[in-house]
Amino acid sequence: MTTTYPSGVKRAEFEAELQRLEVVSRFPEMPANLFDEGPHLITTPNLPWGDDVREASIEAYRRFIHGETWITGGGAREMEAELIDWMGRLMGAANPAGFITAGGSESNMCAILTAKQLSGRKGGSVVFPDNGHYSLHKLCRMFDLDAVVVPAPDGHLDRVDPAAIEAAIREDTIAIIATAGTWAFGSVDPIAEIGEIAQRHGLYLHVDGAFGGYILPFLERGGYDASIPLWDFRVPGVHSISADLHKNGMAPPPAGSLTFRDADLLAAAKEICPPNGTMSGTRGAGPIAGAWAMAKLLGEEGYTAVSLQSMALRDELVVGAEAIEGVRVHPGSRINMTLIHSETLDLRPVAEELRVRGWMFAARAIPAPVGIVVVPMPHNFGRTEAFLNDLRDAMRLATPIETAVVELEKVSAYGF
């Protein structure tokens, strides 16, 4: 076995540095990560096969890690087609078509490029609610499109007014974007109503299901919530849906997906982004293999069990957080995403204390001054009470929200 590499670096030194960087990345603290992306499965009483499926997905990733989708891509392309067909049919499409992407941002970009191609316009506008992901603003800037952002109704940040969406449509509008699993509220936009609007105006409708796409179908099939509104291809006006496998799909990143209602829409995507329809030309086969393996081994039954486990953890968090004085859980969530905030107290010191204690989560400045966003998944099993205890104790650091207007800095998805 080599003790020194060609660069002169000793094997032991390299291993030590690799381990240090793993610790810096906080990988060993996975159970404390309440906002994670990656292969989240662990074995629990409800998911006794969790570790085995996760390791099989990682092994598939490893075996295809040297490949791409060009010369050595035959197997990966088969996996991709099988995965898109399976999930597309679960989302209500009779003849789905699409591809695996690097994540929700690329999926959204490809969808709107397809809409632009179909419109025949060089510019134009895109209408979406202000709960839309930041990638929607980014793609508009990149593609010379005006972002027409529709504000939420007063006092209801998780809601969308369909009439306001229709009123925002302009002569140059090429597409509407709605969300199934909004950041950071977990809500589902009124997509059936928006779909009717899109059809009336002859517009492309894309659904950003990055968070919701790989949990909503299984919550419905698992009987968790019979009141989940229609959001997928069962709504006639929907043209495409993004859904991230590396979120609730439990697959190793980067692995998103863009599914079109039919092959004609995929063909339009390939016209604007040849040869695959994707933004990237070279696509690694590893993420496709890892995602395919996860879906192949979980199937509908496994994903339903995983989704119900995630929601059980979310519900436990919600009940516990709402019992803490001064804390409010934002309403409207339909998925395993919860926004914890306060209408009377500044939780910024609380959030900082929770980070010091090892908890990882996202933060959001709306509603001001800060909200704590948690997305519990199977790897958080057994950690809910510990988090709630730390939250309860850290609330002693909260201070009253000043009545004067406070100038807040913008926050990223992962800090404040």
- How many domains would you count in the coordinates? 2
The CATH topology annotation of the largest domain reads as: Aspartate Aminotransferase, domain 2
Mean pLDDT: 94
Unreliable parts:
403-416
Structural class: alpha/beta
Widest beta sheet: strand line-up: 1-7-6-5-4-2-3
CATH architecture assignment name of the largest domain: 3-Layer(aba) Sandwich
Output the number of helix runs.
12
* Largest beta-sheet characterization: 7 strands, mixed
Helix fraction? 25-40%
Tell the overall outline. globular
* The top level CATH class name of the largest domain: Alpha Beta
Total beta-strand segments: 13
| SSE ordering | HHHEHEHEHEHEHEEHHEEEHEEHE
Topology of helices and strands:
Layout: H1 11-24, H2 50-63, H3 74-90, E1 97-101, H4 104-119, E2 125-129, H5 134-142, E3 146-150, H6 162-168, E4 173-179, H7 191-200, E5 204-208, H8 216-221, E6 238-242, E7 256-260, H9 263-272, H10 285-322, E8 328-329, E9 338-341, E10 345-346, H11 348-356, E11 362-364, E12 371-374, H12 384-394, E13 399-400
Parallel strand pairs: 2-3, 2-4, 4-5, 5-6
Antiparallel strand pairs: 1-7, 6-7, 8-9, 9-12, 10-13, 11-12
Helix pairs in contact: 2-10, 3-10, 4-9, 10-12, 11-12
